[in-house]
Amino acid sequence: MKAMAMRSWAKDAPVELVDLPDPTPKAHELRVRVKACGVNPVDWKMRSFGPLRLAARVIGPPSPVVVGVDFMGVVDAVGPDVTAFKIGDRVAGGTMFSRRQRGSMADTVCVRDDQVVLVPASVPDDVAGCLGVVGATAKMSLVDVGRLPRGGRVLVLGASGGVGQLVVSLAKRAHEAVVVGVCSAKNAPLVQGLGADHVVDYGAGDPLAAAAAFGPYDVVVDCAGGYDGGACRRLLKSGGRHCIVAGDGPGAAVQPIFPPFSSKMILGMPLAQNLQPVMDLLASGAVSIAIAERIPLAELERAHALSRTGRLTGKLVMIP
């Protein structure tokens, strides 16, 4: 198999195309020939800083370190006890360093059968390849952690980003929520098109003060990072939740320890139970994932540089 990997955990070590042995699936595992894999900020952050980088170094797979999480492809081998999937199935999901698995930026991945879902014919390869992190994160923010009631009220900070777009869509389509999105004036039409009832321009003053006029909220989802936790919590209804998706902003790691303990860090786990509800909505056309650019796998450094700008309004997709 060919993969984009770091040869060491040196800070910002380069990624390069390497040859590795094809993995052999063990019990409850399947091997997938990758057709598309989505880029997420966590991919390049793990190369540079943060608690996920430390965790991956301690419990992750040995070097060379294949980066990436999201993937879509076709099953070409199954291990013992796999019953829900067969050779030839189109599947999408995510790899997990916590299970000592290599990353997804490769032409082949090997994962457990609870980390993938079937891809319906109506969902394109590149869209399915971006589902893992954003799908799991959006679903967990609104359902598992946010506990958003039907018809509730949601504030999405960073609404035009990869996770933010899906949070807006899911909140509106799956929960019939009143959605307020914060983004730039340039991206306001995009966020409105996703279903936001109100859009706040973060360049026109204090966006949290402006968003307060449409609150209080059942859930505040910070997909941008850097917003003051106390100010976010003051926008909540009693019992509401402040979900922190971009957990590397100032003080993000300590916000959950302050009373009233309504701030929660979200680590999107690419498990089938998190991905299936989003895949169902993608298949029905109720939600979508915008693609910014399709890039050859060997140009992963360029893709990471684009992602680092924070100015993308769609997902980058790597094509092996």
Please name the CATH architecture of the largest domain. Alpha-Beta Complex
Structural class comes to alpha/beta
Q: Could you name the CATH homologous superfamily of the largest domain? A: Medium-chain alcohol dehydrogenases, catalytic domain
Helix content range: 25-40%
For this entry, what is the oligomeric state of its chains? single chain
Strand tally: 16
CATH class of the largest domain: Alpha Beta
Strand content: 25-35%
How would the global form be characterised? globular
Give the termini distance in whole angstroms. 11 Å
Attribute tags:
320 residues, alpha/beta, Quinone Oxidoreductase, Chain A, domain 1, 2 domains, 7-stranded mixed sheet, 6-stranded parallel sheet, 10 helices, 16 strands, globular
In short:
The chain is of the alpha/beta class and 320 residues long. 28% of the residues lie in helices and 27% in strands.
